[in-house]
Write a structure and sequence with these properties.
The chain has about 110 residues and is mostly helical. Helix content is about 70%, strand content about 0%. The chain has a domain at about 30-100. InterPro entries: AF0060_NTP-PPase_MazG-like.
Length: about 110
């Protein structure tokens, strides 16, 4: 496994991306945090653009994307959200895991004994 092949632990990769973004940021403090969270809106917009392009819903442009493009954009949303969560707390893994557990239990119920 190389450090760039994507097979590293998810949270290790998120920590590395977070550190890289912090090293290259142009805005500090609350403004930097808000901009990092707002990046999610941009990424979600790219998902919408890809879906519209994959379904050919813009008659002027026609079919401009594939469903694989939608998958990639959804991955970008997830990565951006996890980096934003890491920006809010160094305990992002624990916060996410606890929240996922609550959502899963709420939606699916407790697992059978």
């Amino acid at each position: 496994m190389t450090e760039l092949d994507g097979s590293a632990d998810l949270w290790e990769s998120i920590a590395r991306l977070h550190a890289w973004l912090d090293a290259h940021r142009t805005h500090e403090g609350a403004e930097g945090l808000l901009l990092r969270v707002l990046k999610l809106s941009e990424e979600v917009g790219e998902v919408a653009q890809a879906v519209i392009g994959a379904t050919g819903q813009n008659p002027r442009k026609g079919t401009t994307h594939r469903w694989e493009d939608v998958q990639a954009e959804l991955c970008d949303v997830v990565i951006t959200a996890l980096v934003a969560l890491r920006t809010l707390t160094p305990d992002a893994r624990e916060v996410f895991t606890a929240h996922l557990t609550r959502v899963t239990r709420r939606s699916l119920g407790s697992p059978a004994p």
